[in-house]
Every structure is written in C-alpha cells, then in structure tokens.
Amino acid sequence: MGSVTETANTAAARKVTVIFVLGGPGSGKGTQCTNIVQNFGYTHLSAGDLLRAEIKSGSENGTMIQNMIKEGKIVPAEVTIKLLQKAIQGSDNVKFLIDGFPRNEENRAAFESITGILPEIVLFFDCSEEEMEKRLLGRNQGREDDNIETIRKRFNVYMESSLPVIQYYDNLGKVRKIDAAKPIDAVFEDVKTIFEKVNTE
Ligand code: C5P
Ligand code: MG
C-alpha cells in the first residue's frame, strides 16, 4: 500500500506532465501517440496495451482482464491505475501521454485521488462511428475485441461512459478537439499545432 503514496509523492516531486489522449475505439489515438513521441519527447502509455501485457504476463488478474476486454467492459480503476503508476515510476521521463484512460468517471476520479495528477490538456480525437468501425475491422492486429459484436459493445461503452469524461474536462477548458476522420498526416498537422502550445514547465 505504501507504493500508492510514494508514487503520488514521486510524481509531484518530479513535476510530471500528463496529457490524456481520448476518443473512440479506432479514432487513431495510438497512431498519433507514436507521432507525438517522435516529435515532442513524450512517453506513450496505452492503458489497453498495459492491460493486454498484464494478461500475457500471467498475473492473477489476467483472466478477469481478458474477460472484460472480450466484452468491451472497463476494468476496475484500481487495476489500471496500478499499471499506469508502475510505468510512470519506472520511467526517467517526466512527460507522459496516457492513451485510452480515463475511460469512465470511476477511472477519472480514482486516478485524480490516488496520484494527485491532473492532466495538462486532454486531446480528443473526434471521429464518426462509421469510420471507426471501418478502421477496426480493417486493422488485423489479432485483437480478440476487434470483431463486430465486441466493437458494438465498445461503441456503447464509449458513448455512455467515456464521452461524459470528455465533457467533464471540456467544462474545465482542458479539451483540445481534433477532427480524427482526416488522413493520418493531416491529423498530425493539427496535433502539432496543439503540442507547440503545451506548457510543460
Ligand atoms: O484502448 P484500447 O482500445 O486498447 O482498449 C481495449 C480494451 O481495454 C477496452 O475495450 C477495455 O475493455 C479495456 N480498457 C479498460 N480501461 C481502460 C482502457 C482500456 O478496461 N482505461
Ligand atoms: Mg490503442
């Protein structure tokens, strides 16, 4: 349990900058995070990737996480936050892109109270469901949740649970909305304009 406080203290002491990268499944969050890492020196933490790695590692939570992902459901915040904290702690960097998190109000509130970290900005990749579905069905990454049944469930969770979190941050003036239906390079041009203005002091 000591590790929770320790991370909060460590993060505060290191003045960690966090940017949340949100948007529906298939909106291009991961792709653009790769571009941002190459150009702006951030470390990319994908909540989904961390959860999938946890399944592979054979941890005691693995089966639970696998079942939730298959159903498109959101894993309890405590589990995902531990993985994020571990990754932040284990990094020498002080600038992080957290992709696919917070996915619901529980994620958001727990991260804030456990780590004490507030996002500098929230990048929001706005894309139509039709376009996202096309991308998810076409990407062939071998994911168990990129099938039409699970995709529909993920869209529902996104609409019901994730959009309200984006709305929450929008009310705080933190959201930077990007038209994510455009081609990858065009989206990155818009991303760059935003990152050139981010304060990482
Ligand atoms: O972001 P990504 O599409 O990789 O997430 C895949 C799945 O991982 C989600 O549908 C959800 O089941 C799980 N996840 C989660 N909590 C998060 C991020 C992802 O439960 N914050
Ligand atoms: Mg992703």
Structural write-up:
With 201 residues, the protein is an alpha/beta fold. The chain has a single domain (15-194), classed as P-loop containing nucleotide triphosphate hydrolases (Rossmann fold, 3-Layer(aba) Sandwich), CATH 3.40.50. It has 9 helices and 5 strands. It has helices at 2-13, 29-40, 47-56, 62-70, 77-89, 105-115, 129-138, 148-171, 184-195; strands at 17-23, 43-46, 95-99, 121-126, 175-179. Strands 2-3-1-4-5 form a 5-stranded parallel β-sheet, sandwiched between helices. The longest helix has 24 residues, at 148-171. It binds cytidine-5'-monophosphate and magnesium ion (MG). Cytidine-5'-monophosphate binds next to α3 and α4.
In short:
The chain is of the alpha/beta class and 201 residues long. 56% of the residues lie in helices and 13% in strands.
Main sheet characteristics: 5 strands, parallel
Helix content: 55-70%
Which structural class is indicated by helix and strand composition? alpha/beta
The total number of structural domains is: 1
Secondary structure tally, helices: 9
Strand neighbour order, sheet with most strands: 2-3-1-4-5
Tell me, briefly, the overall form: globular
What is the CATH H-level superfamily? Answer: P-loop containing nucleotide triphosphate hydrolases
Order of helices and strands: HEHEHHHEHEHHEH
Reported by name, the CATH topology is Rossmann fold
CATH class: Alpha Beta
pLDDT < 50 runs, ≥5 residues: 1-6
CATH architecture: 3-Layer(aba) Sandwich
The overall strand count is 5
| Distance separating the two termini | 30 Å
Radius of gyration: 16 Å
